Structure prediction request, 844 residues.
Amino acid sequence: MSRRTRHHPGVLFTTVLAGALIATWTLIGGSASTPAAATNTSDVTPAVAAGGNHTCALTAAGAVMCWGSDEFGQLGNGAATENVSAPTGPVVLPQVDGAPTTATAIAAGESHTCAILSTGDVSCWGQNDVGQLGLGASGGDTESSPAGPVLLPSAAGDSTTATAISAGSSHTCVILNTGAITCWGSDSSGQLGNGDDNENDPSPSVPLTLPDDRAAIDVSGGREHTCAVLDNGDVTCWGADADGQLGNGPGGANVTAPSGVVTLPDGAAALEISAGTAHTCARLNGGALTCWGADFFGQLGNGALGPTDAPSGTIDLGTNTALGVAASAGHTCAVLNGGAVTCWGDDSFGQLGNGPGNRDIVVPTGTVALPGGASATSVALGPAHSCAQLADGDITCWGSDGSGQLGIDGDGTDVAAPVDVVALPATVHPAPSPSPSPPPPPSPSPSPPPSPPAPAPAPAPAPTDDVGIVTVAPGRLIETRSGLSTVDDQQNGIGRRAARQVTTVNVWNRAGVPTGATAALVNIGAVNPALQGFITAYPCDADQPDASTLNYAAGQTISNGAAIALSPTGTLCVYTHRAMDLIVDVTGYTPADSVVDTNTPVRLLETRQGLTTIDGESEGIGQRQARQVTAVQVTGRAGIDPTATAAILNIAAINPVLQGFITVFPCGADRPEASTLNYAARQTIANGGIFALSSSGTICIYTHRAMDLVVDVTGSIPDTDAVNPINPARFLETRQGLTTFDGQSKGIGQRAARQVTTLQIAGRGTIPNDATSAILNIATINPALQGFITTYPCDVRQPDASTLNYAAGQTIANNAVIALSPTGTICIYTHRQMDLIVDITGWT
Prediction:
């Protein structure tokens, strides 16, 4: 089964996502919880899920393809058939409210499969003899096509959506957007957690009561037990305990509801959990692994055979750390830092991937030889086969192929080591059934507004004292797509950027930026990248730094604001990690005599193991916990002036466990009611800005949800009146019941499509009446369709540029420095209907 597209119930199928939750499949059914991406398919991370004798893939386009045993219709191809030894095409997912859907997460049980849809709904197919499809009383014993959405429980009268899913052997569990867990299907040993163990439940349960009323960040279903990681790093388990798989010590009796928590080694916090048939493994902060429960084949990895009813230590990985773990029926696998895969336990069918011999291994030793020396991002386990999702998007499998579950169109013989990748059909978009014609789809980035853009104004006059930042009306400098233009028709229609290409952007004497400017305030957008990756922008006379300006998922359109130093000839270079179209807009610059000091981007904070910062400080410190505040020293590092009062930073959230936000503020100040960065579960996303520092040169970062965190610095600002950072304050909040710092511009209602909203900035709070520009963070909340926002001074025409790009239903923010009109206002054009928030972090 696959939970989080990764773990297993029943027989134990497990999937492990590197750096994320891991899913495991226990032979009886099973799958680990697979986190859903954001509700738009552009955020989908390719994944693999392994069931009892079948396997499914989730593509970057949100398509689901399955192969292997189809005895109960678990492949979703419309009719239960014989075995299918290679993928043939995508599953047709159900429509919701008359509109087609795609998938954002998948899970495979022993003989059933489930997906989280792009709407946040859940659809399942395959065997339903004990209600594991969640269809209620109306469900038949099998469903060979994805059924209509599962009716998830409401919260306080509001509908809920699923954010992660796990299929056990014959039961299914999801994490809701509230952090609660609901389960359905077999309850033979109390694995549904609803307080009894004698009745199957074909409908989702009332949300479970978790210890201390915590929220869940990971869930995994095994054969007859279920485990969850809570948002404080605790682990709680329920269901069968005959082999000690609940980790609660001696006893062995079934536990029918979550109660206590597992005592983890050295008081560590768990980041993910994987439940196998009768054993359980957890990945801990710092990358250690610990397992407990059945150990007939050495699947606990501790070198001894025999069950353990509680964690007793961590597995010896040598100098490596684990990025993911998956537990199955009798074997366990982990993804290591660097992308290697190692497996241990039962090798009866070659499922350990170590070549001929079929020898059980009781401790992790070597690594699996992946095709072409590839790196893995996740692993999924069935009871007798294993699969890895590779970094380049391919999938490779090994072990038992008796039902065609390896997907290699083989002859049914076992494969003791991966030899090739699965040939996924070229058609990656599922073909939905007909539905009413929707409105024409928007362009992935702004189309020109109805009225032509005004000519770029001349640079604003320099102040008489210190000079900091000069703002200009936003103007496009790079547009790679044909048929769209830049502010001066230079560097437009130049074609899609190739992977690992460096593009030079000419900045001087364009869009109001004069010769001699030392840095540019730019908004850089990735449009439909081929694979997940990043962009790095830097001055062309410098070496490409080990830092990122923008992170994106495959197919996503997303932008980020940054202040980038220019080369002596007025250029900046943009490295595109993956093939994509590229847009670059400019909103301001620092003149030659500016007091703002910009530099080539350098890394100040890197929580992930094995990755470094510029000076070795604040590196490898481990995933940040939910509601944790992390202090980062900025001044005195990487050449940053010890007396600087503000810094230009890029903050990135990496693989957060649930949807949430980050708030950056000067240490020592109260944490403001504002957000710096908004993210979806499992999304990697960045936002840049100018941030006030504490008197000791630090910033504090509040992480709403558990995640890894990266901070890069691109410049600093001394104590000057030229640039005035402030503790973030909310200036606009359209939602009812929420407020702004001064009660103005609150609860004004959702913005309509193509509406322009005027927001007063000058004269509010500490912003003086003569302020000339605002440093702001603008966020869209639940937009109706894909589109963009353009922010500009209200005394000029709307420019052909974008401040923020978003997908339907996405909550996302971007930082920008925007010139104010003579009356101290900015105008915000909302391409699509949405709620809108604006936080101010400074002014000039």
In short: The chain has four domains: 10-399, 465-594, 596-722, 724-844. The first strand starts at residue 10 and ends at 17. Residues 68 and 405 are 4 Å apart (CA to CA). Confidence is low (pLDDT under 50) at residues 1-43, 427-464.
